[in-house]
Design brief:
The complex is a heterodimer of chains A (about 525) and B (about 325). Chain A has about 525 residues and is α+β, with helices and mostly antiparallel strands. Chain A contains 13 helices and 24 strands. In chain A, helix 5 crosses helix 6 and helix 11 packs antiparallel against helix 12. The chains are: A alpha+beta (about 525), B mainly alpha (about 325).
Chain lengths: ~525, ~325
């Protein structure tokens, strides 16, 4: 057990400082090689002091990552912080802290330092689990200053010793009993030895999590891709990240009774191998679609387009589909939609009539006779601004008919034509993820949780007791030990019940002899 | 170093001591520096694994909901900051020299990080933004009030806040006067307030059919409940009311925050990402206990500083 004290003394040292100092002294006289510097750095990493610095530095780096909005366009920082500060933010990479080299380096250093401490942590864990040796416990029990319980019990020492062992076993102690040359019986009970290794597990866990995180972003293995599918369309990956297709059968927003809070985003998705449907599922947030190691998570939605029904004076009605795209407008919180110019003009099949879509809004309201879009993003009252152009292929005398803002299911007569906003088509944004690191991360989380709980909630501790003959009875001296020392209450809670249990099993003490359960810091009882 | 101070404090306690400045008078009524230091460490040792579990369960849930177990969302990152600060505390503590002032400073910093994670982040955009809306569309400022809850619950909430206000005064009175009756009254009031709060949460649970853990106000109530529970447990375990004068004000401030900054006291309907009952309940419950314990450790660390300052006003700061 000398090792434990020696090692716990080792925790106090600051080899880093000592080494750095001596290096500085050397620098003036002797040439120092790369090897010396590396060795010194390695020793620095082994010190707990360095770990503390690294943890604090990482905390500060994270704080910067919270306070400076991450991932915006460089222009935004110049506008927000002014030219000088903005340029500084961008130069130092503070706009993408978590993927910057210095942050990753800091993270790597912390992990390497955990590695550098591995041997020490392992030894500490083993020492904690092993507990103090019998010889050390014997010595400590004899020391004046260590608190102990002493009781004189009636009954032969052997019987008291057996009861002691029994009582400890009943309280789930691992018991080791021996006797010395003076005839005293020594009993050591140890509990929660396994918890000593908690410190090892919690540190090992860091590696598992780091490795899992690395696997999760490893190019080629990991996949993290946003895909957008408009209702009715089929998505086939152009880059070939996966060779099956997805069809969005429908997308729906479900509301709570208040009609403003979204209850669910539901994407009805089919997986297609070639033309064949192999799987169909409604994807919800919290319920991804899983297929061939790829999971598709509901991540966004929007309006992908709308369709307009045109009924000519003679002939069949025809449906024309228009796509829409969002345009960011700083004044608006909700997205603004526009019809891409290339697709804004669509002809009917006979190429005699064209429908021109000039605008689209998911939620229109009338203000002073004008139709304007609200900030509401969901298509509650969608409207499309349409102009009908007729008379093509007839020698150029085509005419324009402004249909104004068409509303859903409200057909409008324009000249001889009838025109109607038929449907609004949603798109669903799915996040395709393949992450082989996740099981490793889970393992790390488990190790971290179990390791920390073992370390902090289950203290490995030892009870040592000596039973020596005393008159016609036996004298029991007992003490509890734990690394770092336990508080008074804990100490009592561990020793007193054991004594009480032995007392229960023994014949009652003869008059004036036994007295149990008294504690003597400096002197024992009778 | 700290033992020197402890010595100074005991000197002041001795009957013959001349120093009866209000500072040393109050300092005598606080636990010893070493006790406070140990206590802070004990509470953090209890809270840290729970904080870790909070982050782990949140992470597991994020994987289930969004497909990424870590996304550098401000709330995630702020929780990591708190975790790192407490990890630094525990590592620093392994070196035996790291006690007293620096340790207490880290304990306070750690809880500030928790508070930032809890409330500060609501001011920033992110996935965890459940902050209340304080300004109406027309610019009218909304503060306080009991919109969205039945009158009976509003009355219970008022009673709870009054009970805690009186309990805080009681603990303060007890700390100053050492009057056992004042102490017993304070404890009874604290228990009464705690039961009232439990009743409020129970009635919300009954109305919702699940634990009330979704709106900002919900969680503020749970946070208050966690701190109050942690305090009452500590009072029982330590058999001491010494922490009361420091913890009760924290509870009051948190309740005022809950009252003022969430004009709508209704429970929010579950957003799609929150519709995972298992992780919702596990994640938030663990967070409540962790936050409660860590709030307590912050209070003991603050007590450490107060005691040190009052016990030896003229003494130069010792470096540790």
């Amino acid at each position: 057990m000398h090792q434990l004290t020696a090692r716990s003394a080792g925790w106090r040292y600051g080899p880093a400082r000592g080494v750095v100092l001596s290096l500085e002294k050397k620098q003036t006289k002797v040439e120092i090689g790369m090897g010396d510097i590396l060795a010194a750095a390695w020793r620095s990493l082994q010190s707990t002091q360095t770990t503390v610095y690294l943890l604090v530095a990482l905390a500060l780096a994270n704080l910067v990552g919270i306070l400076v909005p991450q991932g915006a366009a460089p222009q935004a920082y110049l506008e927000k912080y002014g030219l000088l500060l903005g340029a500084l933010v961008i130069k130092a990479g503070l706009h993408h802290v978590f993927s910057s080299t210095w942050y990753l380096l800091l993270l790597a250093l912390l992990i390497v330092s955990a590695g550098a401490c591995a041997r020490r942590i392992w030894r500490l864990g083993r020492a904690l689990a092993g507990g103090p040796s019998l010889s050390l416990l014997q010595r400590r029990l004899g020391e004046e200053r260590s608190p102990r319980v002493t009781a004189t019990l009636s009954g032969p020492p052997q019987m008291v010793g057996d009861e002691l062992v029994g009582a400890l076993r009943r309280r789930h102690y691992r018991v080791e009993a021996t006797s010395d040359e003076s005839g005293a019986l020594w009993t050591v009970g140890r509990k929660y030895r396994w918890a000593g290794y908690g410190i090892v597990f919690s540190h090992l866990a860091i590696f598992a999590i780091a490795l899992g995180a690395l696997l999760g972003v490893w190019p080629g293995l990991a996949l993290d891709k946003m895909i957008q599918i408009t209702e009715g369309d089929t998505y086939t990956d152009a880059r070939g990240d996966f060779d099956f297709s997805l069809r969005l059968n429908s997308f729906a927003l479900e509301y709570y009774p208040d009609n403003t809070t979204v209850k669910a985003y539901k994407s009805d998705v089919s997986v297609l191998e070639g033309e064949r449907e192999v799987k169909r599922q409604v994807v919800l947030v919290n319920y991804p679609l899983s297929y061939r190691h790829i999971r598709f998570y509901q991540s966004s939605w929007g309006i992908g387009g709308f369709s307009v029904k045109v009924t000519p004076p003679r002939g069949e009605p025809e449906v024309l589909r228009f796509p829409v795209q969002t345009a960011e407008c700083p004044e608006h919180h909700a997205p603004l939609y526009e019809v891409p110019p290339a697709a804004a003009v669509q002809f009917t099949a006979d190429r005699q009539t064209a429908v021109v879509a000039k605008g689209f809004t998911p939620d229109a309201e009338e203000k002073d006779g004008e139709v304007v879009g609200t900030r509401w993003a969901a298509p509650a009252h969608p409207a499309a601004q349409i102009t009908l152009v007729t008379g093509f292929n007839r020698g150029g005398d085509h005419s324009f008919h402004d249909a104004g803002w068409l509303k859903l299911a409200k057909p409008v007569k324009v000249g001889d034509y009838q025109i109607e906003l038929l449907t609004v088509r949603y798109y669903s944004g799915l996040n395709a993820r393949r992450d082989f690191g996740v099981p490793l991360v889970w393992l790390g989380f488990l190790g971290l949780a179990v390791g920390l709980m073992a370390t902090f909630y289950f203290k490995p501790h030892s009870l040592v007791a000596a039973v020596a003959p005393s008159g016609s009875g036996a004298r029991v001296t007992m003490a509890a030990f734990e690394k770092g020392g336990a508080g008074e209450e804990k100490w009592q809670a561990r020793t007193y019940p054991v004594i009480a249990q032995i007392l229960e099993q023994l014949p009652p003490p003869s008059a004036g002899e036994g007295k149990g359960g008294s504690k003597g810091r400096d002197e024992d009882v009778k | 170093m700290s033992s020197n101070r402890a010595q100074a404090a005991t000197n002041a306690e001795s009957p013959g001591a001349e120093r009866t400045s209000p500072g040393s008078f109050l300092a005598d009524r606080l636990p010893g520096l070493e006790t406070l230091d140990r206590l802070t460490c004990r509470i953090i040792s209890f809270g840290f694994p729970l904080l870790t579990l909070t982050i782990i369960t949140g992470s597991t849930w994020a994987q289930a909901a969004w497909g990424r177990w870590w996304g550098w969302d401000p709330k995630e990152t702020a929780s990591l900051v708190a975790w790192l600060v407490y990890a630094a505390y525990l590592h620093g503590r392994v070196r035996r020299g790291w006690q007293g002032g620096p340790a207490a400073a880290f304990a306070v910093l750690g809880f500030l990080a928790i508070l930032f994670c809890y409330a500060g982040v609501n001011l920033l955009p992110g996935l965890h933004s459940y902050g209340g809306q304080l300004v109406r569309e027309d610019g009218h400022l909304l503060l306080g009030g009991f919109r969205g809850v039945p009158g009976s619950e509003a009355a219970l909430t008022k009673a709870f806040m009054i009970a805690y206000l009186l309990a805080a005064l009681g603990y303060l009175g007890f700390t100053v006067s050492r009057n056992a009756t004042a102490g017993r009254i304070a404890t009874s009031l604290a228990w009464a307030g705690f039961l009232l709060l439990t009743g409020i949460l129970a009635s919300r649970t009954y109305r919702l059919g699940r634990l009330p853990l979704t709106s900002g106000y919900d969680f503020a109530l749970c946070f208050v409940w966690g701190v109050a529970a942690a305090y009452l447990v500590a009072e029982k375990v330590l058999r001491s009311r010494a922490l009361g004068a420091f913890v009760l004000p924290v509870i009051l401030v948190l309740s005022m925050y809950a009252y003022l900054f969430f004009p709508s006291k209704d429970s929010a309907p579950l957003m799609p990402a929150l519709q995972n009952r298992f992780w919702l309940h596990v994640h938030v419950s663990v967070a409540v206990v962790a936050y409660g314990a860590l709030a307590l450790s912050c209070a003991t660390a603050v007590m450490y500083f107060v005691k040190r300052r009052l016990a030896a006003p003229g003494e130069p700061r010792a470096s540790v």
